[in-house]
Amino acid sequence: MRALIFGWTGETGKELVKQIKGSNLFAGATLAGRRNKDGLDEFFKQEVVDFDNLDPKIFENHEHVFCLLGTTRGKAGKEGFIKVDKDYCENIAKLSKDANASHFHLLTSQGSNANSFFLYPQVKGQVENFCQGLEFPKLTIYQPGLLMCNREESRTGEAIFRTIMKPFNSMLGGSSGSISTELLAAGMLKCVEIGKTGKVANKDLFQLGTEFKSNESK
C-alpha cells in the first residue's frame, strides 16, 4: 500500500512521517505540501502542491490518504482558518473519494461539533459530517485532545497548559484530555494495522498508540 499525507510538516505530521517507514505497513508514502524539504530518503516522494488548485493526479494509486491540515484563527484569521481547516480539508476528501482511496484518515479534535456556537469545534464538526457523507469504504476520524509537543510555532497559552499537564498525561492513560503527538501518530498507524474506522477519541488514541509502540519495540 501507499499513503498520501497532507499536513506532514505539522507537529502530528512530522511524527507520522517519523514512524510510518519503520511500521512496515506501507511500501512508500507521498508527502504533499507547499514546498519540499531536505533529508528524506527514497521511501518518501515529495509533491509540491497548490492547495487552491490541487491536481487530481496526485491522489491516484494511494490506498490511504491522511488529511492532517490545520491552523488557528489567531494565526490565519477567521477566513484563513475556515479556508484551511474546512475548505482545503473537504476538497482533499472529495478528490480522495474521486480517486477511489480505500481508507481516508481525518484529523480533527476533541469536542468537534457542527452545531457548536464556537468556530473551532463547529468547523471541525462540519468537516467530519462532510467526510462521512462521502461514504468512503473506510473512514477514520481522529479526535485528540491537547497535543503534547514542542511547537515550532509559539502558542503561549497552550505551552503553559502543556507544562502543567505533562506529569499527569501518562499516569491518567489519556483520560487527562491530552496526548503526545508521538502516541497520536502511533495510534493512527495502529488504526491502519487493524482497519479501525469511525471516530477515535483521545483516550482510545492513547491506548492504541501505546499498544502500537509496545509491539514495535518487540
TrEMBL record:
It comes from the Eukaryota. It comes from Oikopleura dioica. InterPro entries: NAD(P)-bd_dom_sf (IPR036291). One of its GO terms (biological process) is import into nucleus. This is NAD(P)-binding domain-containing protein. SUPFAM superfamilies: NAD(P)-binding Rossmann-fold domains (SSF51735). GO terms for cellular component: cytoplasm.
